[in-house]
Amino acid sequence: MSKSSDKKIRFERRRNRSRRQNRFHAERYRLVISRSLKNISAQIIDDLQGSTLVSASTLDKNLQNKLKKAASKINQSKLVGEALAAKAKVKDIEKVVFDRNGFPYHGRVKALADGAREGGLVF
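The structure assignment produced for this chain is given below.
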């Protein structure tokens, strides 16, 4: 096996492990993070109906002014977390289950989680 396929297999294992533990909570929705080299996005998903309730991303048009002022991608991630929490409050969502989607819990993922907690989400 090549090194790149081994890396992909390990990532898929981590992703499935976190997803398996966080799925199908009847009383809580799932907060899923997706990260690339340039952008980060988050969604709150209802697994029972299979629908996205709230989403926020660094690509959102209404966040662009705030994101330009941010010094780093970590600060941008925190702003995305706060925006997601604000949108969730409008839809009366307080409690969620955090799904880091196989990404390690540090850096931008941790910043997004902290921003969502400061915005009022509980997980």
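Interim note for the steering committee: Residues 3-119 form a domain with the Nucleotidyltransferase; domain 5 fold (CATH 3.30.420.100). The radius of gyration is 15 Å.
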